[in-house]
Amino acid sequence: MANRKLNDRLYYSISEVAKITKVEPYVLRFWEKEFPSLRPKKNRAGNRTYQLKDIQLVNRIKTLLYEQGFTIPGARVKLKEGKESDGSGSSKVQLKTALLDVKKELQEILSLLSSP
User: Which secondary structure element, helix H or strand E, spans residue 42, and what is its range?
Assistant: First the structure.
């Protein structure tokens, strides 16, 4: 698997996902219980089959918990917020940028009005 790109396959086993994401398999199984959005399908043998979207979600959860310091309930809320804005926080970022631009313009107008 070292020579393969991540997009080359449709399904990955839990051990492969553990190697890709550097998260132990028992942690992945635990996260399945804690995060309703992380539900990899199971094959006929009952083995978990992760898709690319599942791997991306695992990486997002890992970032929220380990890098950004969210608790599990906090990360759950953050993921839910992301889904409500079409699966990404980009619309929030765009809105915040637009509001900052408006604030800057208003401050400039205020300074023009208050100067003699």
Answer: strand 41-42
